[in-house]
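#onboarding

Welcome to the new folks! Below is a worked example of what a typical request in this channel looks like: someone posts a single protein sequence, and someone else replies with the predicted structure as tokens. Don't worry about understanding the tokens yet, we'll cover that in week two.

Example request:
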Amino acid sequence: MQMATLSPTLNRERRLSSASAIAGAMSNVINTDGYERNEVSTASGNEFQQSWFNFITTKGTVLNNILVPGFLFTIWGATWTIIYMLTSFRVLFPNSQALISIISFVVALILGYRTNSAYDRYWEARKVWGTLVTHSRNLARAFWCSTSASTPQQEIERLGAINLIMAYSVALKHALRDEQGFHFTDLAHLLVHVPKFRPGARNPPKENIPMEIILLLTEYVRNAEEAKILEATPKSIMNGCIGGMIECLTNFERIRNTPIPLAYAIHLKHILVLFLLALPFQISQVLYWLAIPVMLIASFTLLGIESISAEIEQPFGYDVNDLRLNEFCNDLRMELNALTHNSKSDRDVLSWNLDAVRDKNKNV
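Example response:
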């Protein structure tokens, strides 16, 4: 089964005109219409979208990281293979293959553990972001459908609260990339309705912006309850969602701040180096001249696996293999924009009927 999907690309270079213009457009909160988008309809089927011809590209690969050490180990192996084939020097070439067998087992064991640990971190980060999106959707739905904004001020407060939900994901994205502050083109306009985040504000917060936003969301829930526009059950749902967002922040910080132990990573490199240095002495007397291409393949394979593990264990950056946090935020932005443009009359259950269908059938 195939389905049509939209793949929007937002212009990162768009700059905000002025704070007053943004404040005056609160009714279009989270609006994506002002962004330059290139929407392409594609067919998404139950198949892997990558082509077999991608093996010729270097984009997203670790080839640049392992090119120099890979060729150095190949030259090392080629040098000793030539010595073995063209001279009678045999002192460093043992007859037994026991050494290569033992070291191969250790290398495979440690490399497997290293790869699994790195991918577990990558996949856990993706799952936590999915949980964050779930809490954001539920909180926005509760704000929009469970609070009764009877005055223009209450409507602005409700729109501003949904703005803060979007701002939380964007601020968290920047925090995970060690980008402090809130003066970013995709974040500043989401916070401009809050006095301490406005341009020219005295002593604006510069660190831990996600927790600042959490406090603002909590304050909105408290004010809504005091204003009698929020009932007890939706309030519990909102507080649960806010608590879940805090838990996501904690999990993200744990993933980012707890890398693979340095001693383990360095020891793995030591074992790889010793294995590749000893490999030509073991295979030259068995493979002869073929030991040179085998050395090349072994070097790039083992070094590549280790480099891939190091690449994906911190998945919050801008690399091709990192999580697409910008895309995730843009998707949530469009969802919240659609939500805030859905009026109460559009979802009024009392307006559901089949009169139009009956009239159409009669005309037919």
